[in-house]
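Batch manifest, entry 17 of 40.
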Amino acid sequence: MLGAIVSLLLVVAAAYAVTQVGGVITLLFIAAVLFLAYRRLSLLAFTTTFTVLLAAYTVLGAGGAPAGIWKGFLWLLLAALWLLNVRPLRKQLITRPFMKTYLKLLPTMSQTEKEALDAGTVWWDGELFTGAPRWSKLLSAKAPKLSAAEAAFLDGPCEELCRMLDDWSITHERADLPAAVWEFLKTRGFFAMIISKKYGGLEFSAYAHSCVLAKISSRSATTSSTVAVPNSLGPAELLNHYGTEEQKSYYLPRLARGEEVPCFALTGPRAGSDASSIPDTGVVCRGTWQGREIIGLKLNFSKRYITLAPVATVIGLAFRMFDPEKLLGGKTDIGITCALIPRNTPGVTIGRRHFPLNVPFQNGPIQGRDVFVPLDFIIGGSKMAGSGWRMLVEQLSVGRCISLPSNATGAAKAAVWATGAYARIRSQFNTPVGRFEGVEAVIARMAGLTYIMDAARSVTAGAIDGGEKPSVPSAMLKYHVTEMGRQVANDAMDVHGGKGICLGPRNYLGRGYQIVPVAITVEGANLLTRNLIIFGQGAVRCHPFVLREMAAARNPDRAAGVEEFDRALFAHIGFSISNAVRSFIMALTHARFTRAPVEGPTARYYQHIVRFSASFAFAVDVAMLALGGYLKKKESLSARLGDVLSCMYLASMVLKHHENQGRLEEDLPIVEWACRSLLYHAQEQLHGFLRNFGNRLLALAMRALIFPRGRVYSAPPDRLGHKLAGLVINPTEARERLSQYIYWTLEPTNPLGLLQEALLLAVQLEPLEKRIRVEGVKTGKVTALDPPGRIQQALAAGIVSETEAAALREYDRKVMELIHVDDFDPRELGALAAATPESAARSSAHVA
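Output type: structure tokens
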């Protein structure tokens, strides 16, 4: 593959060669060599083919002095290529000296960094680093599907739970879930979705787990947060994978039955996002436990932001373990360790609560002072001491793909469902507000972003069910899905206006809007995730050669290390130059000749993703070569490259999701908006990367190969937004698919169901309203300003029948009930005021 390097030299010399050495033949020769580089031939195959081409070119090409110089240069280049095929010579002259320099430049890697890099698996994210992603790998993956038991759970217990929830009562009056809801969650398996049936759990798929969270979050953010934690990174997950059989047999059935409520204590005042630097300690020592002296751990810790801590009965605790007296016979600094600590253990202080932005899911601090526990409390037993960080990063790659992305997606689906209906039933200037172009643009963005979120959530969950543990995609989903959720929440507020900002029993947006920063902050702050993790981890973890080169350079077996480093290095060089050629050709042709795995309207987006994959892979290699370890500190550059990777990944998820749903034609405007938006953002982030790249000459060279025609991608056009908004403000099947698995059941206390009912009535009664305007208002027969008055005058004038008038009155009543906002006696809003009978009655009857 190294022979592809010739292509770069030929591109540089092409202008001179074509003008000075005989145009057509030279151009054909260069095109042939570029084609070979594009196709990524091996070094030997390329060299052999190049020899034949050069021989033919020498015979058929132009004569004269300029041509002779040009051909001489090419023959020297060919000689160098043949020498590079002699591996013993190549290793001695190039590989060994370069490896020595490479080792000096290679930054040191801590054990925690190594474990983070080794965690999880490389999936579609790895393909996007190749410059030529294999679509068969993605498209052949099974579409995620609920089993009969999982579907029954969503339609049964999940529906029943949502019916029990009164969010205003939970958030304003109780600051907690009712006792009956807690009992229902514990006894109906909501805390046991990831526990195997062997221990009494539900053993749901990742996709079912995700759908349950999405549905609950469409009803109550407090409840979805409560359900998410026991099923994410915590005691059950860690016990499943690392616990001793004794620990599993004791704890997992109790967790599955809800007899134990778990929390996991990781974050503390001095260690937030940098969890590997936790100062909490566990010192191996002798102590008394249940009346006898044993070797155990004396724990001292201070944790905060711990969800479920105030009500937890068992605490999963991460701490730094030391053995200063070497009672275990090994090293003194054992490392990060995880243990299970019962709530009632002496020295544990627990029960106080944080109050995260008016959304009162149970969250609070935990402290421990001289807490003594047996070594058996270490998850996995004493043999797993020091393995805590590995345990955490391995399981985080799964949990971060599910919990927050699912909650954010469910909330976004509910916001789109509600906003589409509200924009249809709410009229201004005799027109539904959803038909104003400005509102259409906002609703289109909401729908497009929600489709992206749902595609990423469902397809990635399907990959987990297929055996993947996608660590880099988990970071992409955590960041981008929660950020898109923030945008959707803001847009929903903008469309609803005063209806959205007045809290009360009738407000179905306010608490979801308030909790958005919580999702942005927890499980790794989004600023950190974007600037350091997505590309920082992906560049090493997903790149086809970097990890191989690093491992080979550090191999203590020198001969084996040089052998492997040689193979990786020269494959990497050829890979980089080939991607430069692929980037240039696909950018020049707008990827029109790139093979797509499907036919039809979406084929072009597959082609564009391949084009960006080549440009991205090329830019990454140049950046890593030019900046080395310093690239890690150039967070803005890393973040932009991470955005490009994320946009390609998310666009791929959109296309796969569209395939999974059967390539439905009605959904094409949403798919097109999503792909156009993502690809446009990828282009702009690549542009920003080049503008801010420190080396101007390298940036200019990269720009010539990445954007030879300039930036040709544009954001989704207005006409597309108009189509998209139309799918959401009308009762279409696309609207239902977009909001699948939310709680839209028609019930007196469910605003999402009532909004849908009003939307259906709006479409049904629109001809009657139009008749009143045309035959009544315009002719002067109807002069009333309010709808009830107009209906009455239209009835008197014979414009509508009694039945039609009754239907219009009932519709207007339903609309006004949905549009109204709450008001309160000042005494009801006091922080210390007890819930009054009046407020309780208001809460229970607010949408009756």
